[in-house]
Amino acid sequence: MDVVIFILAIGGLIFGAEFIVNQSEQIALRFNISEFIIGSTLIAVGTSLPEMASSIAASLNHKPEIAIANAVGSNIMNITLVLATIFILSKRFLPKRDFFAKDSIWTLMPILIFLLMAIDGVINRFDAILLMFLMGAYLLFLIEDSKGLAQERIEKPEEESKKRFSWLRSLFFLILGFIFVVIGAHFAVDSASNIAKSFGVNEWIIGLILISFGTSLPELVVSISATLKGKVDMAIGNIIGSNFANITMVIGVSALVGDLSISLEKYAFDFALMTTATIMLVYITANKLYSKPTGVSLLILLALFLENAMQGIKVVT
User: 2, 95, 101, 226: which has the highest count of C-beta atoms within 10 A?
Assistant: First the structure.
């Protein structure tokens, strides 16, 4: 029964996130915001809402390992699964933005700061506030950077988008989306915890694999959709923004709810793999290696991640 509840809960998370993302995009279109900014802010934060809701629910239920593992696993999945998939599926991947020059520091900064914070074994409320300030700094950077960008619009006639836009409709679906996300997160964490106990699997593995994969599905769907429509800047912006939000907002807000205990030594492989995947992303953007072989290389990293997780399950059982 818990498996059925978990699947339905993840469905609710994705369904709610879809509402939020769609309506956020409509609001962005109304104000002529560029594609990259839409991808790295509104859509990135929107697709990170399932992770945030799940981690907050885990923190409230005194399950800090699930809260952090969810964010770590999602960051790994976003690069090794989502980015790899769009590289393999895309025929031509030619972004307009120089991601290495403008965004590489923002992919590594939150991870390095988080690892420094975790050395003492706990992410406390002071750490959480610093992470939230870091998120604010990133948003300020994007706002300043967007002033020099041409106002790229999503390919919809302006009159059509204005005609379809309605504040009342958007607010209704935004609220409905948040309701689905919050309820889905509660049941996802609760059922996942029960599954872990029934199989003798620790909560870190459940958060790292099961919940993180489920909550990464919105990023996967949105990025693939954007890539197939030729909006590659939006696709990569979504991944960079989502990963930034996972560390700063997901872990930060969860730590505001309650201190999150963590052992860097115990889960060294997973933290090292998250850092390695991020460095690979920087290397890819530096050399513009947007190709199918690069996608395969990232999938190999994903295989190592899953193989290590399976070893952890065997050890526990």
Answer: 226
User: Do the beta carbons of residue 174 and residue 23 sit within 8 Å?
Assistant: yes
Q: How far apart are CA 146 and CA 197, in angstroms?
A: 48
Task: Kindly indicate the confidence band of residue 152, based on its pLDDT and cuts at 50, 70 and 90.
Answer: very low
Q: Which residues contact 260 (CB under 8 A, 6 or more apart)?
A: 59, 64, 67, 68, 122, 123, 251, 254
User: Positive or negative, the Cα torsion across 204, 208, 214, 219?
Assistant: positive
Q: Tens digits of per-residue pLDDT, 78-136?
A: 999 999 998 998 877 778 788 888 888 899 999 999 999 999 999 999 999 999 999 99
Find the length of the chain: 317
What pLDDT, on the 0 to 100 scale, is given for residue 294? 95
**In whole angstroms, how far apart are CA 165 and each of 42, 46, 53, 155, 225?**
17, 19, 28, 15, 21
The count of C-alpha atoms lying within 13 angstroms of the C-alpha of 178, restricted to the half-sphere facing its C-beta, is 8
Q: What is the CA radius of gyration of the chain?
A: 19
pLDDT of residue 194: 80
Determine the Cα–Cα distance for residues 61 and 238; give it in Å rounded to an integer.
Answer: 29
Q: Domains in the chain, please, with CATH?
A: 2-316 (1.20.1420.30)
Distance CA 176, CA 294 (A): 39
- Alpha-carbon distances of 130 from 84, 134, 137, 144, 256, rounded to whole Å: 31, 6, 10, 21, 11
β partners of residue 260:
123
pLDDT in tens, 192-208: 778 777 877 777 887 78
Mapping DSSP to helix (H, G, I), strand (E, B) and coil, where does residue 182 land? helix
Looking at this protein, which amino acid is placed at residue 89?
A: L
